[in-house]
Amino acid sequence: MMVEHTPWLLTAVPLLMAAFAMLSARLAPYLASVSTLICGTLLLQALEPLSQETIIHTLGGHAAPLGIELYLDRLSWMMLALTWLGGALCSLYAFFWFRSTGHAGVAGFWPLWLGLIGGMNALFVSGDLFNLYVALEVIGICAVSLAALAQSREAIRAATNYLLATYAASLAYLFGVGILYGLYGTMDWRLLATLAQPEAPALLAAGLMIAALAIKAALFPLHFWLPSAHATALPPVSAILSALAIKGAFYLLARLYIQLEMPGSLPALLLGYLGAAAILYGGYQALMAHNIKRIIAYSTVAQSGYFFLIFAIGGAMAWQGGFLQLYSHIIAKATLFFAVGNLALAAGSVTLEGIKGVARAAPLTLFGAAMAALSIAGLPPSGGFLAKWLLLQSAIEGGAWHFVAVLAIGGLLSAAYLFKIFRYALIEQPEKRFNDPGVWLGWVVLLGGFISLLFGFVGGQSVAWFDLSALSLGGAS
Amino acid sequence: MIASLLPLWILLTSLVGGLIIFALREGAVWPRTFVNLAAAVVKIILVGWMVYGVYHGEDFAIGYELLPGIDLAFRADAFSVLFLVLSAILWLITTIYAVGYLEHAQNRRRFFGFFSLCVTATMGIALSANLLTFLFFYELLTLATYPLIAHRGTAASQRGARIYLAYTLFGGALALVGTAWLYVLTGGVDFTTGGALSEGVIASHGAALMVIFALLFFGFGVKAAIVPFHGWLPVAMIAPAPVSALLHAVAVVKAGAFGVVRLVYDVYGIVPSFEMGLLTLVGIVAAVTILYGSFLALFQDELKKRLAYSTISQVSYILLGTALFGPMGTVGGVVHLVHQGIMKITLFFAAGNIAETLHIHRISQMQGIGRRMPLTMAAFSVGAFGMIGFPLVAGFATKWYLGLGAIEAEAYWVLGVLALSTLLNAAYFLPILYKAWFQKPPKGVQRPHQGLESSGWLLWPTVITALLSVAAGVFAGADHAPVYWAMIVARLEYGGLL
What we know:
The complex is a heterodimer. Chain A is built from 19 helices and two strands. Chain A is mainly alpha-helical. Chain A has two domains: 1-261, no CATH class; 278-465. In chain A, strands 1-2 form a two-stranded antiparallel sheet. In chain A, β1 and β2 (68-72) form a beta hairpin. In chain A, α5 packs antiparallel against α10, α9 runs antiparallel to α10 (235-245) and α13 (292-313) packs antiparallel against α17 (401-426). Chain A is globular and about 70 Å long. Chain A starts with 5 loop residues before the first helix and ends with a helix. Chain B has helices at 6-23, 29-55, 78-101, 108-127, 131-149, 155-186, 199-204, 206-221, 232-235, 241-249, 252-268, 270-275, 278-297, 303-323, 327-358, 369-372, 374-388, 394-408, 412-438, 456-474, 482-493, and strands at 61-67, 70-75. A two-stranded antiparallel sheet of chain B has the order 1-2. In chain B, α3 (78-101) packs parallel to α15, α13 runs antiparallel to α14 (303-323) and α15 runs antiparallel to α21 (482-493). In chain B, 61% of the residues are buried. Chain B is built from 21 helices and two strands. The A-B interface holds A 363, 367, 370, 374, 379-381, 385-386, 388-390, 392-393, 396-397, 404, 408, 411-412, 415-416, 419, 423, 426-428, 457, 460-461, 463-464 and B 22, 64-68, 70, 72, 110, 132, 135-136, 139-140, 143, 147, 150, 152-155, 158, 162, 165-166, 169-170, 172-173, 176-177, 180-181, 183-184.
C-alpha cells in the first residue's frame, strides 16, 4: 500500500529537507542523510513490485488526461537508484570537503543540492510534459546556483552562461509543450504517443523539445556552456553537475525516442552522429587541456557522446550498452571530480604542472581515481568496459563500421587524457611540499573507485532491467 | 567445492596478497616480505595440485556470467598448465630477487602491490577459458605493469612507461574490436582444442575471419613485440631489473605469445588456420622478427638493451613453431614459452646483479667480469649458450623440435632462418662471454666482496634459474619435463590428424 506513494514521496522528501536545510546550515548534512535514508528505503520497497508491473500514482485521484499521473517503471527505478547512489557519494564527499575547507558556500550548498535531487527524482517519475518542464526548471535553477557557489569571477561568468543556455532551452521546451497541448489537449505523454500525428506543428514541437534537451544534456555542439561551468565550480558541485545534472535531459530524450517510435528516423540519426562527434571532439579537447578540472569536464562532453550513439545504432543491445554507460559514468565521473578536488587541495593547483609529484601526498586518491579512470577509458574490469563491449557488438552487428572506429578511437583518447593526470602526479618531486587533503576525502574517492570497479562485475546483471521491448510495450494504460 | 574452485584460489592468492601489501605501511619490510613469499609459495602448491589434477584428467572449469550469454570463465588445460607452472615458479624466484634488489629503494609498497597484480593478471591469462576472459586479463596486465616500468619516477622511466602504454593500449584496442567482431559472428568463443569456429561460420564469413585474425594477431603481437610493434620493449628496459626479468620472461611478452598460440590452436584451429593461409602470415612475421631482432641486438652496447633485442627475436620462436603445420613445430613453439622464460630470466638476473654490485651497464666495460663475479657470469653463460642453442641447455631442445617441425611441414626456408638466427645469436652473445672470461679486468679492480661475490638475494635466484635451464635441457626427454607437456599439447591439437 505504501508502494504506490513511492513516486511522489521520492520528490517530496528531498524538497522538504531542502526547505529545512535553509533554516539551519549546521543541521543540513544530517537532513541530507535522513533524505538519503528515506529515499533508499522507498526505492528498495519498490523493487519487488516492479518486477511484475509499473507503479502508477494518480495525484489527487484524478486520472489522465484531466489529472496528473506519475509512473515508476524499471527504467525509472534504475535511474532513481543510480542517482541515489551517486547522490549519496556526492553528499559524503561534500560533507568532508566543506568540513576540511570551511568554504562559505556550505550554507547555500545543502538546500540547493537537496532541491536538485528532488527535481531529478520528479523527472524520473513524471509522465506528463508540463510536470517534466517543472522538474527540468528545478534542476536547472539548482544546478546554476550550485555552479555559482564558488563565487570566483570565472565561476560567476560560467554560471551566467549556464543560466542563459538552460533558460533558452527551457523556453524552447515550453513552446513545444504548448504546441502539443494546443493540438491534442493533453500533456500526458503516453496518451500523446497514441494521439500524435506526423503533422508539421507536431514535428516542430518535437524538434524544439529535442533541441532543448540536447542543450541541457550538453550534446556537441550545444555543450558550449558545460566545460567552464563544470571546471570552475566547487569540487563537490562539479561532481554533482557532471555526474548527475545532465543525465536527466538525456533520460527524457531516451523516453521520447521510445514513445515517439523514433528508431531509424532522421533526428535519431542526427543525435547519434552528433554523439560520435562529441566523443572525438571532447576527447581531443580534454587531451589538449592543461587544467585537470577542464580535462575531466571535457571528458564529460565526450562520455555523453556514448549515450547518444544508441539513437543511431539502435537495437536492444545498444540500448543496454548506452544505459550501462550512463550508470557507470555517474559513479566514475563523480569519483574523478572528487579526486581532482583532493589533488587541488593537496597541491594547491589544478594545472598539470602544479600537481607534479602529488602522488606522494595523495596515494589513496590516486588509487581510487585509477579505478574510476578504467571505467571512463572502457578498460576492464569496469562498467564502462561492459558498456563499450555492448555498443561495439551492436555497431558491428549493424555494420556501422564508422561507429566501431569512433568507439575504438574514443577509448584510446580517454585513456590518453586520463593518463596525463597520473603521469604528472607520479613525477617524483622530492623537494616539493604538499598539504594533506585528509584521509576521509581519500577514502571517499577509494569507495567511488571500488563501486565503479564493482560495476564491471555486477553491471551486466542489471541489463535485463532496461530491455527496450518491455519499455515500449508499457505505453498507454 | 574447494577443488573445483581451484582456478579462483590461484588468482586470489596473488590478488589478496597484493591488496594486503597495499594496505601495509611502507616501512613494514618484514611483514611485506612475508606476505609476498607466503602468497608465492601457496600459489606454487595450488598450481602443483592443479597440474596433478589436469594430468589425471580432472576438469577445472568455473564461470561467471558477465553479460547475458557472455561469461568470465576459467579452465585449465595442458597449455595453461605450462604457463602456470612457469609463472608460479618464476614469480617466487623473482620476488626473492626483487626483495634484495629494492632493499634501499623507495615506494616498495607500490612496487610489490602492482607486482602481485601483474602476476594475478598473468594467471588469469593462463586460465582463461574464452577469448573475452583472455582480453579482460590482457588489458589488466597492461595496466598493472605500467606503474612497475615507471617505478623510478625519473624522466626516462616515465618516457619508457608512456611508450609501453601507448603501444599496448593500441594493441588492446585492436584485440577488442577483433574479439567483439568474432563474438558477433559466432555468439561466443570458448577456447577449444582444434578450433572453436564451426564449419558454417568458416564457410560464410571467410573474408571477415581473415580481417579478424589480423586484428587479433597484431593486437596480441604488440605484447609479443613482433616487428613492427616491437618499439616499446627496448625503451621499457628502463624498469628495475626484476621487472625487466618478469616482463621479458613471463608476464608481458609471454601473454602476447600465449594469445597468438591460443588464437591459432584454440580459436581458429590449426587446420582452418592452415587452409585459410593464416599460418603463412604468422610465419613470415615471426621470421622477420627473429632475424631483425637478432640483427639489431648486435649493435647494442648497453647490456640490458642487447638482451631486450634478443627477447624480441626469441619470443618469435614461439610464433614460428605455431606457424609450422605439424606436431613437431608445435612442440618446439610451445616448449619455448617455458625455455625462453627460464633462460631469459637468468640473463636478466645476472645483468641486474652486475649492475647492482659493480655498477657496470655496458658490454664495453665488462672485461674480466667473470673473475670478479664467477657464479653470476657462469649463470649468464648458461643462459647465453641456451639462447644460441647449445646442446645440454634448454634452448637446444627448442631449436631441435623447430627444425624437425620445419622438415615435417616441408618449410625448408625455416631451417635457413634458424641457422642464420643461431649465427646471429652467437655473434651477439659470444663476444660478451669472451670479454667476461678471457680478457683481464682493468688494473686496480678487485672482487667486490671477500666472501660471496654479491648479495645472496640477487645471486641465488640467478644460479637457480640457470640450473633450471640446464635441467630442462639435459632432462628434456624425462616425464613431466616441459617438452613432455608440450607433447601433450601437440597430441591434443593434432589428435584427429595423427
